[in-house]
Amino acid sequence: MGDSTILFAVTGKSPAILTETIWSLTHETPPIIPDEIIALTTKEGREAIQSQLFDNCIWDNMVRALQDEGIDIAGKLKFGCSQEHIMLFPSADGRRDVNDVLTSDDVASAGDFILRTLRSFTEVPSTQIIASVAGGRKTMGVLLANCMVLLGRKQDTLCHILVQPPYDSPLLVPSFYYPMPNILHKNKNDGKTVRSIDAEITLAYIPFVRVRDIDWSPETAPLNYGQMVARTQQGLSKVVLPEITLFFTDAIMLVADIETKLSSVEFAVIYALCNSIKDGVVINHWGILEDELQALYAEIEVPADARWLSDFQKGNFPDMKEDMRKIISRVRKKLSVNGVEPVVIEELLPNIRKNKILYPAEKIIFK
Question: Computed from CA positions of residues 64, 70, 74, 76, in that sequence, does the dihedral angle turn out positive or negative?
Fold first, then answer.
């Protein structure tokens, strides 16, 4: 990647934000000319870029217009329909590219993808990132902005493009992409026309906090988006993960000074989880707790005052695929209702499909 300036942009079905942003950057004083452009988008977004910018020669015409103005873009503004420049958001299971970012799983996967992609460029000290949040769904822009907060360096910038009415209207024919000489845009509703060259485009730079150096260490990397946010929030809030104490006879979980009473099966799962953490087991799926739970289920010498264990053994053994997620969800809710910090819950009971458990073993106590 070397010493280069890269425009990162999230885009949707209206890729005009790419031409509008490039036009504005190149008309800054002095001109800012990205070496390459990377669009983070969906399958529908890629089709829109292909049909609106390349099939209609809009991109090539804009490049020629910049050259005609005497702007030196030689060897710069590298952009095309290859996967090097148009990167598609993957589905949560990684098996396909998504058509749109609609579900919570899509959002989580998009966050991971943006973080991973952006991180590969920000690890090179000599690169400069210009990140545009103007396109795509609002969630995509928010994710990119948040990733810039997590990864941005002093040379990186965050921006938005503002196109003054009526040039921002989807009713214009032809559509507006950048100020073009000798082109009139007609409104399909009222028939009014405006000159393309009169369009006002404002490139708005967005100040943002850079927290890149907060509490990052080699043993915690690479982190996905959710873990990175939680770990950074912990550093910002000066939160020290509290001790977790499990009272064996009472089925009580104490997080710092917050007491939570658990059901028999909930306590069995948390006990198995914490025991595995103490044993140094890498917990990246709930099924890994099955042996610990089987040992509890088969325990013969049950203390008389450990009523929860007797109740656990009388019930059905939890299904590792169907029941575990529900049990963990109930415990998360109980802890949250009782006032346990979200970052603590996220470290101990994350979405196990995406995160591994990072809670320190020395913080867990059995009584």
Answer: negative
Strand partners, 260: 253
Tokens of 132: 């545009």
C-alpha span between 199 and 178 (Å, rounded): 8
Give the strand pairing for 258-261 and 252-255. Answer: antiparallel
Contact 85, 79 (CB under 8 A): yes
What is the 8-class DSSP label of residue 51?
I
pLDDT in tens, the chain (367 residues): 458 999 999 999 999 999 999 999 999 999 999 999 999 999 999 999 999 999 999 999 999 999 999 999 999 999 999 999 999 999 888 888 888 888 888 888 999 999 999 998 998 989 999 999 999 889 999 999 999 998 999 999 999 999 999 999 999 999 999 999 899 999 998 999 999 999 999 999 999 888 876 655 544 555 677 777 776 766 665 557 889 999 988 889 999 889 999 999 999 999 999 999 988 888 888 888 999 899 888 888 777 778 888 888 898 898 888 888 899 999 999 999 999 888 788 888 887 776 777 788 899 999 8
Rounded Cα gap, residues 331 and 24, in angstroms: 51
Residues in the chain: 367
Helix (H) or strand (E) holding 185: strand 184-187
**DSSP assignments along 204-234, one per residue:** EE------TTSS--GGGPSP-HHHHHHHHHH
| Conformation bin of residue 289: beta by default, left when phi > 0, alpha when psi is -120 to 50 | alpha
* Residue 282 φ/ψ, nearest 5 degrees: -80, 115
Q: Is 9 exposed, middle or buried (0-12, 13-18, 19+ CB in 10 A)?
A: buried
Helix, strand and coil percent figures for the chain, each rounded to 5:
40, 15, 45
Coil/strand/helix, residue 235 = helix
User: In angstroms, rounded to a whole number, what is the distance separating the alpha carbons of residues 21 and 177?
Assistant: 10
Cα 52 to Cα 5, 17, 172, 182: the distances in Å are 25, 12, 14, 20
- pTM: predicted TM-score of the whole model, two decimal places: 0.62
d(CA 166, CA 278) in angstroms, rounded, equals 63
Burial zone of 235 (CB within 10 Å; 0-12 exposed, 13-18 middle, 19+ buried): middle
